[in-house]
Design brief:
The protein is α/β, with parallel strands linked by helices. The protein has helices at residues 2-10, 26-32, 64-72, 79-88, 102-117, 195-206, 222-228, 279-294, 299-307, 335-348, 371-378, 403-412, 423-430, 451-461; strands at 16-18, 36-38, 53-55, 76-78, 92-97, 126-133, 138-141, 152-157, 161-163, 166-169, 178-181, 214-218, 234-239, 246-254, 257-264, 267-274, 317-322, 325-330, 354-358, 383-387, 416-420, 439-443. The longest helix has 16 residues, at 102-117.
C-alpha cells in the first residue's frame, strides 16, 4: 500500500493514508515522499472528502474509517484493482508468485531489466515490490508506457486476499504475460483452509497466463508440479534436477557470496555470482535469470546484474555490528522461510554461535498448525529465543500457537530455548549472554517492539 501511494502520487494524485502504527522501512519511504500517514484510524482522516479510497486487505468491517466510507458512499476500490486499471494496461505484465521468495526474486528481475534497459530502452522496467530493493532505494518505479510498445511492468504477485469485499487472491487481477512460480506451501491459515485451498489459488493464477506466455516454475516441489500440470502456456522448470530446463550446477559459497553454473537445456548458459548466501537465494536468482532470458535479455547482462544485486531491506539485512556481535533482520513469516534464513546464516558465518530471536507475528506463525515445523526450523540455531504471540486474542483459541510448547520441544531435542513476554525481558536475559562472534537473527514481519534499535544500544551499554 505504501508503494502504491508513491506510484499514485507520481501520477499526479494527492495521496494520504491511515494506519494503526506505521513502521520502517515503509514508513521511512512514505516520509521521504512527503505522503502524510494519519495514525490512528479516524473519520477525520477522510476530511476533506477524497475522490477515491483504496481499502487495504488488512481493513475489516468495524474499522472506523471504513464504516464512514460505506455510510457516506465514498467511492472505494482495492489495491489490486487500481494496479490493473491504472498501471498494467498496455504494459507487459511479469508476475512473481509463490509462497516464498517473491520479494527477492521480483527485486532481482527488476534489477536485471534495469541493467538491460541501459543499452536497450525496451527493457527499462516499471516495478512494484513488497519491500525496499536496495539497488533502487525504493519499492516501486513507474515509467511512461511505451508508444505502441508493451513496456515491462514487473510485480510481486501476492496470494493473500484482495479486500474485505473481494476475498480472491490479489494476483488474480494481474493477468501475467509471463510469470515465475517459486514455491507452493500451506500458508496464510487465516484465509486458506488447507494446502489444497492454497493450491487451487495458484492453479487459477497459472490459468491466467495466455498460450503465448511463459511460466518459469520450481522443480523441487510436488505442490508446484500439481499447480502447473494443466498450464496452457510453455512451462520451463528450474532447480537442481538433471532434467530441469534451467539447472543450478556446481553450487559453491565463499566469503558470503554464492557462485554457480546455470545450464539451459543441458548447455552452459552463464556463470552466475551473487553477493548473498543460501541455496534459496541462488534459486531466486535462477528464476529471475530464466524469466529475463526467455524475454530476450542477454546472458551477459543477466550475469552482470546479479553480481551487483544488493538484496532487499529486511531480508538477511545486517542492522548492526556491535562489539563483534552481528545483528541480522529478516522478514520471517513462515517456518520454511525461517529454516532457509538460518541455513543461509550458517553458510555465511561458519563456526559462529547463532541466535534466533522470533516474534510469532504473521497470521501463519501465530497458529498451532505450524508448531512442529517451527520447531524443526528453530532447531538450526544454537539458541532460540521466543517472544509472546503478537495479538494472541485475535486468533481463535483452538488455533493459537503456544510458544511454550515450541520451547519445550526444542529443549527435549537438546536445544537451548527460552520464552519471554516482551522485548524488555528478552534483552534483560539475552544481552549478558552474548559474546563477540555471535550472530543474532531477529525474525519478525513487524516492528517487534523496537528490538532492532534497542538490542544494539543494550549491547553498547553493557560495558
Amino acid at each position: 500500500m505504501a508503494s502504491l501511494a508513491g506510484m499514485l502520487q507520481a501520477q499526479g494524485h494527492r495521496v494520504t493514508g491511515s494506519d494503526a502504527a506505521a513502521y520502517p522501512p515503509m514508513s521511512d519511504q512514505l516520509a521521504s515522499m512527503k505522503i502524510a500517514v494519519h495514525q490512528p484510524y479516524s473519520e477525520g482522516n477522510l476530511t476533506p472528502r477524497p475522490d477515491l479510497v483504496i481499502v487495504g486487505n488488512a481493513i475489516s468491517r468495524g474499522n472506523v474509517e471504513l464504516e464512514h466510507v460505506l455510510d457516506e458512499r465514498i467511492p472505494f476500490t482495492s489495491m489490486a484493482a487500481i494496479l490493473h486499471d491504472e498501471f498494467l494496461a498496455g504494459r507487459e505484465s511479469l508476475v512473481i508468485a509463490g509462497t516464498h521468495g517473491k520479494t527477492t526474486t521480483t527485486s532481482m528481475l527488476a534489477w536485471i531489466y534495469e541493467c538491460a534497459g541501459r543499452n536497450d530502452p525496451r527493457f527499462a522496467p516499471s516495478f512494484l515490490i513488497g519491500g525496499v530493493a536496495e539497488n533502487f532505494g525504493t519499492s516501486f518505479l513507474v515509467r511512461p508506457a511505451g508508444d505502441g510498445v508493451r513496456t515491462p511492468f514487473i510485480l510481486e504477485g501476492d496470494e493473500y486476499d484482495t479486500a474485505f469485499f473481494d476475498k480472491g487472491p490479489k494476483f488474480l487481477h494481474y493477468f501475467p504475460d509471463a510469470a515465475v512460480l517459486t514455491h507452493v506451501e500451506f500458508d496464510h491459515a487465516d484465509i486458506y483452509a488447507d494446502l489444497e485451498a492454497a493450491k487451487t489459488a495458484f492453479r487459477r493464477f497459472v490459468n491466467l497466463i495466455p498460450r503465448r506466455g511463459r511460466l518459469v516454475a520450481y522443480d523441487g516441489s510436488e505442490n508446484v508440479d500439481a499447480c502447473v500440470s494443466r498450464a496452457f502456456c510453455a512451462v520451463e522448470r528450474y532447480g537442481f534436477k538433471d532434467a530441469s530446463h534451467w539447472r543450478v550446477a556446481e553450487m559453491r559459497h565463499q566469503d558470503g557470496r554464492s557462485h554457480w553454473t546455470l545450464l539451459r537445456g543441458g548447455e552452459r548458459f552463464a556463470e552466475l555470482e551473487l553477493a548473498l548466501a543460501g541455496e534459496h537465494n541462488a534459486l531466486n536468482a535462477t528464476a529471475a535469470a530464466a524469466l529475463a532470458a526467455g524475454q530476450g535479455v542477454p546472458a551477459g547482462t543477466i550475469a552482470e546484474a546479479l553480481a551487483s544485486f544488493r538484496s532487499v531491506k529486511r531480508r538477511l539485512e545486517i542492522r548492526a555490528e556491535v562489539k563483534g556481535i552481528t545483528i541480522i533482520d529478516d522478514f520471517a513469516h513462515h517456518p520454511t522461510a525461517i529454516r532457509e534464513t538460518l541455513r543461509a546464516l550458517r553458510t555465511s558465518y561458519p563456526g559462529r554461535r547463532l541466535w534466533a530471536v522470533l516474534e510469532p507475528r504473521s497470521n501463519t506463525l501465530r497458529r498451532n498448525v505450524f508448531e512442529t515445523a517451527l520447531v524443526e526450523s528453530l532447531a538450526l540455531a544454537d539458541h532460540a529465543v521466543l517472544a509472546g504471540v503478537f495479538k494472541l486474542e485475535a486468533i481463535p483459541e483452538s488455533e493459537r500457537l503456544h510458544p511454550e510448547n515450541v520451547v519445550a520441544m526444542l529443549r527435549t531435542r537438546g536445544n537451548e530455548a527460552a520464552l519471554y513476554a516482551d522485548v524488555d525481558e528478552i534483552l534483560a536475559a539475552m544481552v549478558p549472554e552474548l559474546r563477540s562472534g555471535d550472530v543474532v537473527a531477529i525474525l519478525s514481519n513487524g516492528g517487534f517492539g523496537g528490538i532492532y534499535d534497542k538490542l544494539p544500544r543494550a549491547i553498547e551499554a553493557r560495558g
